[in-house]
Design goal:
The protein is α+β, with helices and mostly antiparallel strands. The strands form 4 sheets. The protein has an 8-stranded mixed sheet, sandwiched between helices. Strands 9-2-1-13-20-19 form a 6-stranded mixed sheet, with helices on both faces. The chain has a 3-stranded antiparallel sheet with strand order 3-8-4, with no helix packed on it. Strand 10 and strand 11 form a beta hairpin. Helix 2 crosses helix 9. The radius of gyration is 21 Å and the shape is globular. It binds flavin-adenine dinucleotide (FAD) and pyrrole-2-carboxylate. The site of flavin-adenine dinucleotide has 39 residues, from helix 1, strand 14 and strand 18.
Length: 406
Amino acid sequence: YAISREHPAPRFFRDCVEPKKTYDVVIIGGGGHGLAAAYYLAKDYGITNVAVLEKGYIGGGNTGRNTTIIRSNYLTPEGVKFYDASVKIYEGLSEELDLNLFYSNRGHFTLAHTESAMRTMRWRAEVNKHVGVESYVVGPEEISKACPQLDISCSGQAPILGALYHAPGSVARHDGVAWGYARGADQLGVEIFQNTEVTRIDVKGGKVCGVQTNNGYISTNKVLSAVAGFTPRITQMVDLQTPIVIHPLQACVTEPMKPWLDTILVSGSLHVYVSQSSRGELVMGSSLDPYEMHSTRSSLDFVEGLTSHITDMFPFLSNVKVVRQWAGMADLTPDFAPIMGKTPIEGFYLDAGWGTWGFKATPISGKTMAETIAKDMAPDLIKSFRLSRFEDYELTGEKGAASVGH
Ligand code: FAD
Ligand code: PYC
């Protein structure tokens, strides 16, 4: 590739224009996961002959569309350990990548409005504590203390009985995570190609041998697919079946306000979650759209439902304006856990099934997928996320900890 007047180097990383004929590893998808895998391949294993191919611009997929919640208060011990490892990397990531990711520890409340929801909160608290993660059940007084603006009766619609409190709950700047990993990978020698779409993957004798792109052909024996909502299109190219289905997930932000909301609040019953960003906007979302659709359109129906429930919780917000709304394409699995690791096609690695929950996993998914590719063997931390679990009936049920209604 050449850096020229037509293709000046952007501020963060080299502007790679023309891919080489061959790479040791090709990564499809320049979201947080693909870029983190590239970074750790180079940093942890010295594998730098790596190309990241992104059909649009980096971070333009779900990485730049999510509501940035980072937490590890899951339901299964396997899930809690995995996400806890990610939170621990996140805590030092601004320093490691030398970029301010606005990582902000807020504490996270999952509100319970019914006795059955309280039971799930107690269950999650016990699993979390068992694995050494700081989560416990609190009553309405403690919630009011942390967030005095919250109407505990929710305008009489669904009084709050208690919550699961999770001290490590945090938010961070989502596109910063993609840009930080991109710059880190680039500095170590990885080449990143934007506007480069993979249109075909060649497999011979059960082994990957190359990819066709709109920017030339690349030979390689190792391909990682990290394309979230586009996963079915890529797996179709190698004739691989997964149970992933795509539903839109929408979110929005309000006009900026002076800081008043210190914590992250999630209500499963009212189907809303909210935090306040470092620039004062309320970042809010609700349930998945209830139908399969490969689209990033957003709807009036979504903001109407969301704002009606948010004003049950915070009646004083009724005059605050929503200024932007958008959607991402969530790649959902039946058990709400990801699909990570090797596949029956030699040299084809899959990082998918991130649905509504994958931003928090970006660092650890990058690290563990890099290890899987480098050693051609998945580390223990991700073994329960293997694709074959759906054939073996060994699911990793995380629906009760998914945050977002389904
Ligand atoms: P992406 O960021 O989607 O990157 C995949 C990239 O692949 C895209 O840039 C795409 O252009 C590229 N691509 C696709 N096909 C090709 C091809 N053929 N060739 C080349 N490139 C290709 N998770 C949380 O943990 N916390 C949250 O608060 C949270 N909130 C969310 C809110 C919303 C509204 C949405 C939509 C998701 C939310 N998530 C959340 C989930 C999270 O955003 C995703 O799971 C995560 O960002 C997935 O990252 P990724 O890198 O795997 O995928
Ligand atoms: O996983 O915490 C989460 C989340 C919140 C909103 C969407 N995903």
